[in-house]
């Protein structure tokens, strides 16, 4: 997470720094991205950067968290549209999310993220790390989501298990997306419709089960 000094910056300067980070991590994968390029694009001294962030990894994960805010709002909207049907909401949200990630404004950035980021890092991006601030934000997000779920449409009767189900769904989503980018990187591109079918199939398994 950024240091307190970052949050005391004027909004224009914070946005400029985030835009510079997006530009650099879109240009190159994490390992090849450069703090020097970020500060040059943002127009700030190197010393100032380290007053705001610990290192390149710190700004990388905060950038993803910042971008994820808008993506995450979509799940709430789809769940409301589905009248609290969790699986239907997840299905519509993930279908929409795939389009945004693969063909949207930040498509090149997400390609770098999923191709070059290991699974542990991907999980951290989705669920947050052990730092209290991340943990509290994840709790806040779930506190908005859980009341929208119609419990009459699922057999799970407690919040802990619902959260676990959502994490299972998103873990599979990220694995499928990572596989898509991995194939794309080796010139064996998988049609996006096939990726959507894979995600929908797993959601069907979660909804209906697989045992006869």
Automatic annotation (TrEMBL):
<feature type="DNA-binding region" description="H-T-H motif">
    <location>
        <begin position="34"/>
        <end position="53"/>
    </location>
</feature>
<feature type="domain" description="HTH tetR-type">
    <location>
        <begin position="11"/>
        <end position="71"/>
    </location>
</feature>
<dbReference type="Pfam" id="PF00440">
    <property type="entry name" value="TetR_N"/>
</dbReference>
<dbReference type="Pfam" id="PF17924">
    <property type="entry name" value="TetR_C_19"/>
</dbReference>
<dbReference type="InterPro" id="IPR050624">
    <property type="entry name" value="HTH-type_Tx_Regulator"/>
</dbReference>
<protein>
    <submittedName>
        <fullName>TetR/AcrR family transcriptional regulator</fullName>
    </submittedName>
</protein>
<dbReference type="InterPro" id="IPR001647">
    <property type="entry name" value="HTH_TetR"/>
</dbReference>
<keyword id="KW-0238">DNA-binding</keyword>
<dbReference type="InterPro" id="IPR009057">
    <property type="entry name" value="Homeodomain-like_sf"/>
</dbReference>
